[in-house]
Amino acid sequence: MQTPRLIALTLVAPLAVAAQLTANSPQVDAKVTEVLAAARKALGGDDALAKVQTLSVTGATRRVFGEREVSGDATVDFMLPDKMRRTDSFGIPGGPTMERVSVVNGNEVWDDSTNRGGGGFMMRMGPGGPGGPGGPGREPTEEERQRMREMQARRMKAEMARHTLALLLRTDAPVTYAGIAEAEDGKADVLDVKPEGATPVKIFIDQATHLPLMITYEAPLPRMVMRQGGQRPTPEEIEKMRNEPPQMATFEVRYSEYKKVDGIQFPHLISTGANGNVTEEWTIEKVKVNPPIKPESFAKKGS
Q1: CATH number, residue 83
Q2: Is residue 5, in this structure, part of any structural domain at all?
Q3: How far apart are CA 168 and CA 165, in angstroms?
Q4: pTM reported for the whole predicted model
Q5: Closest CA to 123 of 220, 219, 224, 221
Q6: pLDDT tens across 118-151, in order?
Q7: Helix (H) or strand (E) segment spanning residue 240
Q8: Segments forming the whole domain that contains residue 61
């Protein structure tokens, strides 16, 4: 499958309301309130959105790592305000498969991976990668372990924050008006969202439909080493990945193909890209609003 290009939305008016206004000016606050009120109404209304306590989203995924492409399925379960469980199953035709569970459970964050089919995966989201900074042949230091735990917690909590912001327009972070973005097919209002201790994001709200179009944020590009026939990545390959500085990029998460489920509009195609290329596509096949999800499903086994 050919990797589609992302069409850029250009921010043409940073602080379009007026250069002399501050983020706390009444005019700016009023614009944020106006944009969010219209967006919530377009998604289904305040009452419908406020009633969402649990949410389950399932669909097919396609991920691109350079010249590699893997496909699979993903299910993300939410128990608001602070629980998320993402289960990914992916692989390549005729090659290995991997199931990965990533969980935010309040202040606890954990993940677990299982390889099947005689192959090895290694993915890296930042320095050290989720497989651990030590790699074969060397045990990681306690300092490295703690750094990896902190990176994992920031990454997964940031992912949950982006999902709840885009799907339900929920955030506890300060929101300010950033201006207007233009593309060939229309304009969008841009809001800056700055969570405490996390990466800031911009959310783009379509001026015509008032639906969320896109979220952008800065993060390291993911990398992966894969081996066939039961072979694991070599210590040299893992050491090289660990020592190479991460390549930072502006990620764009685009939301489209909205469909109504239980009175709420949900996107059914979510595309994530960087440097003009899609790195992941998630085609949503099923959305369940307020399914019976149990708190214990977010607890780590054996804990």
Answers
A1: 2.50.20
A2: no
A3: 6
A4: 0.79
A5: 224
A6: 554 444 443 333 334 444 445 667 776 677 777 7
A7: helix 235-243
A8: 10-298
